[in-house]
Design a protein that fits this description.
Elements lengths: L1 E5 L3 H13 L3 E5 L2 H10 L4 E4 L8 H10 L6 E5 L4 H9 L4 E4 L4 H16 L7 E3 L2 E4 L4 E4 L2 E3 L3 H12 L5 E2 H8 L10 H13 L5 E3 L3 E3 L8
Length: 224
């Protein structure tokens, strides 16, 4: 799950980035509104965490530009502006949630999970179940045949996105962007290694390769 974090405060931005990363998100962090606007024009994100008081271009303008372009990516405003007028302006401009600073990281994470469920619809239940596999995004627990399975952060993230999109073919580019942020070194076969590791745990037929496109997990019987 790929997040664009837009925050100009170095200390707060680094702490938020670290917390989101530890929770399994891939985080790209920009520190002014112009960079955010450019990133949103050229890249695909699953969620946006947006400050309002930004250099170069106000956060509210970044949000309004997104919606004018038809970009429906869920946006959570994270700001020190706590007046009713600011909340109303943010939500009326197209924000999907509004959280004021100072904030608790656990609340931010819970709100982001709620946005994921809301916008993914039926594909994103609080706990994802696929046959004998269950994945809890909140606790980062994966059970297989009722036994806990230890996965690396990126293996967990890959399993999460594949289960949320069961029945859909996801491209290698989409999956790689979901696992790695800007500036991270990515080996050419990194995605294949993660797929291989998941197949070792859940069976060779668990993830199907669609040649020339990417990977998919078939819907389980109870999803059809």
């Amino acid at each position: 799950m790929r997040i664009l974090l837009v925050e100009d405060d170095e200390l707060l931005g680094e702490g938020t980035r670290k917390g989101l990363t530890q929770d399994g998100y891939t985080v790209d962090w920009v520190k002014d509104g112009t960079l955010a606007d450019q990133a949103l024009k050229t890249e695909k994100f699953d969620l946006v965490v947006l400050d309002l008081g930004l250099p170069k271009l106000p956060g509210i303008t970044v949000l309004q530009n997104m919606r004018e372009r038809g970009d429906t990516t869920p946006v959570l405003i994270l700001t020190a502006r706590e007046s009713i007028e600011d909340r109303v302006l943010g939500l009326d401009s197209g924000a999907d949630d509004y959280l004021t600073k100072p904030f608790d990281l656990h609340e931010l994470l819970a709100r982001l999970r709620a946005l994921q469920r809301r916008f993914a619809g039926a594909r994103a239940a609080p706990i994802l179940v696929h046959g004998e596999i269950s994945l809890d995004p909140a606790s980062h627990v994966v059970l297989y045949k009722n036994e806990p399975i230890n996965l690396s952060r990126r293996e967990f993230a890959l399993l999460h996105v594949l289960l949320e999109n069961a029945g859909r073919v996801l491209s290698r580019e989409h999956l790689t962007q979901s696992l790695y942020g800007w500036g991270e070194e990515v080996d050419s076969n990194a995605l294949e290694v993660h797929v291989h590791n998941l197949r070792k745990r859940f069976g060779q037929d668990f993830i199907r390769t669609v040649r020339g496109i990417g990977y998919t997990i078939e819907k389980s019987k109870d999803q059809k």
